[in-house]
Give the backbone structure.
Amino acid sequence: DAGVTQSPTHLIKTRGQQVTLRCSPKSGHDTVSWYQQALGQGPQFIFQYYEEEERQRGNFPDRFSGHQFPNYSSELNVNALLLGDSALYLCASSSISGTEAFFGQGTRLTVV
Amino acid sequence: QQPVQSPQAVILREGEDAVINCSSSKALYSVHWYRQKHGEAPVFLMILLKGGEQKGHEKISASFNEKKQQSSLYLTASQLSYSGTYFCGTVSYNTDKLIFGTGTRLQVFP
């Protein structure tokens, strides 16, 4: 049983560019949450998707947007990249009827 | 608001015990505990759903005091593999957002 998978694992972008990160949830999970983790910090909640809609959102600007597809996979899009967007982006999947959230290995984004 | 963990860091010798605390200003529905090793994703340890509930996994256990909005993680007879940063994650009532605490870095030496 495949766990949560994210792609790509590493990415380098230039300021002002746009980036798309992808996540496939664990089998049987229907909810995807995205987190940003800066070096030495804890994961910060960006938003959560369920039934292809954004259900919850953290304190992130509109430059951060997402999407969930009918197969429950999800994308995180960040526009107009800033140097401060450099971080590890984590995807966590869970079941809306369950409780545990499992994380993917993350995408390390570096903005130069 | 972000849950506060204490202590910020712990250094242990193999076989020693440790307690990590997590405190929230909000009424909590559940508390989740994760361990993250450097450069890796957080790994789920356990979840506590009810006030006063205790759970255990081998030599790691936790308690949740719903009234005090606090949880504690107990590591008994620590092993080298326990090293990493421990995060509590809290879910408040009327929200599904899992909010992570400030983290506790644990280092176990031989």
Observations:
- DSSP finds no helices and eleven strands in chain A.
- The radius of gyration of chain A is 13 Å.
- Chain A has a mean pLDDT of 94.
